[in-house]
Structures are given as C-alpha cells and as structure tokens.
Amino acid sequence: MRIDLHNHTSLCHHATGTMREYIQEALAHNINVFGFSCHSPMAFDEAYRMNVQELPLYCAEVRALQEEFKDNIEILCALEVDYILHREDLLESCVFAYPFDYLIGSVHFLGTWGFDNPAFIGEYAKVDMCECWKQYLKSIESMAQSGLFQIVGHFDLLKLFGHSIPPSCEPYLDLALESIADNHLALELNPAGWRKPINEAYPSPAILHKAYKKGIPITFGSDAHSVAHIGFRYADLCALAKSVGYDSALYFRQKQPQNIRF
Q: Which residues make beta-bridge pairs with 35?
C-alpha cells in the first residue's frame, strides 16, 4: 500500500491546483490512502493559511471528494497545525473540536521568525544557529507532549537552507525523539527537503536511525503544494525507511492508527 498524508490546498494561498486534481494525480501514482492537511487557521501569519470561516468549506470539499472517489481511494481530512513554543494561546480551539482524521504538528516559527520562508532568509546572518536548534528541538518536544497531534511534520525542517543540527545539540535531539516516542506520535518521512538547498529528505538518515532504535513509527507525506509534488520521490522515501529497518508505516482514521506494510 501507498500512503500520502501531507498535502495542501489553494486555501493556504501558496499552493496551486484543485483538490480534485490532487486526487487524480494520487490515483496516477497508485496511492491508496491520501490525506488533505492544509495549514490550519490561526491569528498569526494569516497570509499563508485559511481563515476560520473557510474551515467548513474545506471539510465539505473533502467530504464531497470522499464520496466521489470512495471506490478508488481512501481520502482523509486533516490539518497541519503550527506549534509555536510559549504561544499555545494561538491554537484555535475549533481545530481540535472538528472530527479530523489526524493533525500534523509542525514547527515553522521560532518566535515570530518564519525560518523556512525565503522572504526572511536574511535573519540567518543575525542568529546563533546552535541556540536556534535548541529552541526548535524544545518546540518539538513540547509539541509532542501536548497530546494534540498524531504526526510530527518534517522533523528537522530548520536544516532546509543548509544548517544541519550541530553535534552540541544532540542531547536536545534525543529529548525531542524520546518525547515523540513516549507520546506515540508518528514521524513523517517528507521528500520536500529534496526540493530545498539542503537536498535531503526530512528527517535525515541519522535521525531516522535514532527514531527506529527508539521504536518511533513512521508515515509518509509529500508536503505537496502543487499537483507535480504528489508522489514526489516516494520510492526513495521507502528505500530510506527500509535502509534503517522499517517495513511498515501508519496512517490515521479518526485519530486511530492503522498499520500498513509498504
């Protein structure tokens, strides 16, 4: 079976293509389980996400596609939720009230700095990357402990412009992974890093080895922002997973884990 749980829609204002086109492309790639997980509403960075009023529209369109394609593919309804350390007040309660199949918890911000946005790349020259990695990994640790999420999105995203985790931050890395394991989240294998300057999937092979040793399950997500991203380097992700010992992955239906072999 093939699963792809991290896919955006035009409602986030930085993705292209219709939701139906995404499903048609998923079918062309023989994907069996496909999840829409657009950026969740939040009173922060509003230019890159849907607003609360659009949430019912998003869910309704997913439901319509579920019905239309029910004999061909399982379609899941989810969100990718930004977790900002010490700003948990920004999390919209309605996001957790909806009956989503799963929620991906992701860290894109250190304070107010959107570190993965090329528009703010100049900030890298002003910061201590060791301190940034510590804050990032503490954010992941806290997010996992919140009990709100089923999946950790693109675990080592902070590396995307070439700043890999420094050796001095290994203890913080271990704590973040232990928090993920203790709280039974799945770690997403995400190929978007192969489209970035780092030219490496999320997470790195070294981190994936650590995750496997800690018994952390995995899942797969294209992080698609266009039709062309659907199924991007899926075979390479599977090969990476198998190289460290994985032969199965999770997806979530009504937040309950479903195990499949890949």
A: 76
pTM: 0.97
| Rounded mean pLDDT, 3-21 | 97
Torsion angles phi and psi, residue 108, rounded to 5: -115, -10
**Cα dihedral across residues 220, 187, 240, 7: positive or negative:** positive
Rounded percentage of the chain residues whose pLDDT exceeds 90: 100
Residue 69 tokens read as 């394609």
Task: Give the angle subtended at the CA of 133 by the CAs of 40 and 239, to the nearest 5°.
Answer: 75
Could you give the CA distance from residue 168 to residue 248 in angstroms, rounded to a whole number? 32
Task: Let me know: does 92 contact 39? Beta carbons within 8 Å.
Answer: no
Quick: pLDDT tens for 215-243. 999 999 999 999 999 999 999 999 999 99
Q: Is 199 exposed, middle or buried (0-12, 13-18, 19+ CB in 10 A)?
A: exposed
